Amino acid sequence: SECRWDGQFVLNCSFTGISTVPEDISQIAITADFSYNNIKTFLCSDGRNEEWMMKHLNMSNNLVSELTLTTCTNLPILETLNLNGNAIHTLTLDMPTPANGSKKYRTVDRLLPALKVLSVERNNLNTVPRGLGLLQSLQTVHMSSNAIQQIDPKDFQNCSQLKDIDLRNNKITKIHPDAFRDLNKLQVVMDLRENALTIPLPQILISLNFFQLEVYLSKNAW
Q1: CA–CA distances in Å: residue 118 to residues 19, 24, 25
Q2: pLDDT digits over 24-62, tens only?
Q3: I need a labelling partner for 66 at 20 to 30 A (CA). Which of 12, 83, 126, 130 fits?
């Protein structure tokens, strides 16, 4: 492929015009950049079984529209995932549990166990992806410039390690009072600028740690 490989740590495939992740690239790369291409299928959604040693993956500015991360068992040490500037309207992190109680399709126990940063800015999401709590190490989630309309009580359930949430420039009109209640480690930024909020949020803000947290609420509709 036209990708550049330094022979040790960094794989650079940006601006190469590729439409799929090449099969001849090294699985020992620590950092991989596939940005600014025409890729439609995510790295671990195309049937690859080999284990990657990747810690940082950039797939921003491609053509990914639908993404299922439940298949990502081959990225055990991935720490940062950049999906900015795609066309993602569906991001699935869990699988529904059938009513009959079958274990065959229950939620994934350890999904991307080392992932700390998930960035899905400038996409087409209209809801917060269900199952963020399955990302046990997640500390930062950036979802600005989407079309998210509301924050439900289970959207950030079990996200016990979250420190930074960016929801700026969405279409949020309503946030459930308990939406952020269990985020005890939230201590960096809560960014809700440029949304469609019309009423103050006292119940939500009281539950947050004001001593360590920056909260941005400007350019809303109130």
Answers
A1: 23, 26, 24
A2: 777 889 999 999 999 998 877 656 667 889 999 999 999
A3: 12
Rounded distance between C-alpha atoms, residue 146 and residue 169, angstroms: 7
Nearest Cα residue to 127 out of 85, 162, 170, 159: 170
Q: Among all chains, which residue has been given the structure tokens 């079958």?
A: 102
Phi first, then psi: give them for residue 28, nearest 5 degrees.
Answer: -95, 5
In 3D, which of 26, 62, 58 has the Cα closest to residue 41?
Answer: 62
Distance from C-alpha of 10 to C-alpha of 188, rounded to nearest angstrom: 30
C-alpha span between 55 and 73 (Å, rounded): 14
User: In whole angstroms, what is the distance from residue 110 CA to residue 19 CA?
Assistant: 29
Q: What is the pTM of this model?
A: 0.88
**Phi, psi for 4 (deg, rounded to 5):** -105, 130
